[in-house]
Amino acid sequence: DDTTPTYQKIELQGDQQQYDAVYRVGDTGYEMYSYVDSTAKKYADNVNAVADEIIPEKSAVQVVTHAADQGAGNTQPGSGYHAGGYLPAAEQKIIGYMNGNVKSVALYDALLAHRTEYVYFRTDHHWTATGAYYAYEQFCKAKGITPTPLASYKVDEYDGFLGTFYRDS
Q: Which of 121, 139, 142, 169 is spaced 20 to 30 A from 133 at the CA atom?
């Protein structure tokens, strides 16, 4: 397929060990992604219910899918194949579960294109401000609005938090 983006392969370097659902490479923790269709369907059902309740005039609510978040982010880097299947397919399946009141914003390709940058914390599954900005750009694109340039934001730093993988271990 000529429309499928290709990305430079990332070679895992450093001491490696798996701890249940977390895979450590050197000083970085990666969440082991797995797709569970019943969980994806329940997530979509919840989003649909909220959209139906708060949008009585049936205009669409924007949703950034969690599948994209996990798929492109701090999971083991590679080609997009992980336990549970091919991540872009999982993202599209979840988006397909959304009803007409939900307009999903697919993020897998956008975040994967920046996966060599610091878009996820090394010991966490959350976006850094940079990762959140790339998601925000896709949200703005879907809404047809111009994103505020990244350089115009003030930078604040918070010391002491080492990430949820660190905290949980």
A: 169
SS3 track for 29-48: EEECCCCCHHHHHHHHHHHH
Helices (H) and strands (E) in the chain, counts: 6, 7
Please state, in angstroms and rounded to a whole number, the distance separating the CA atoms of residues 88 and 71.
Answer: 8
- Three-state DSSP at 104 gives strand
Residue 33, sorted as left (phi over 0), alpha (psi -120 to 50) or beta, turns out to be beta
Of 59, 82, 72, nearest to 106 (Cα)? 72
Confidence (pTM): 0.70
Q: At 80, is the pLDDT very low, low, confident or very high (cuts 50, 70, 90)?
A: very low
pLDDT of 156 higher than 90: no
How many whole angstroms separate alpha carbon 118 and alpha carbon 120? 6
| DSSP helix/strand/coil, 25 | strand
Contacts of 5 (CB under 8 A, 6+ apart): 109, 112, 113
Digit-coded pLDDT (tens) for 110-148:
888 887 888 877 777 778 888 889 989 998 998 899 999
